[in-house]
Amino acid sequence: MTKKHIVWFADIEKLNLNEDQNRKWWIKQVLLKGRLEDIKDLDFNEVERLLPELYLPKPIKKLWENYFEWKRKETIDGTPARDHQYP
Fold first, then answer.
1. What is the pLDDT of residues 4-22, one digit of tens each?
2. Distance CA 53, CA 24 (A)
3. CA 84 – CA 1 distance, rounded (Å)
């Protein structure tokens, strides 16, 4: 699951993604350094839940906040949300 091109500086073989702190750290790294295919592998519900806790550069955080706001609005106003495989 972990990919060396994202966290080349860490021993990813020892990274336990079942631990909350490690999981949060991993999601942050993917949002910062991941490729499209890496981001597509994330659980977007988990990303949305953790987003307020993640320290990300403002443009990246704003992009995700806007995306999730758009998804909520599109679902709430009666227009079905498109089922994207990626943001």
1. 566 555 566 666 778 888 8
2. 9
3. 21
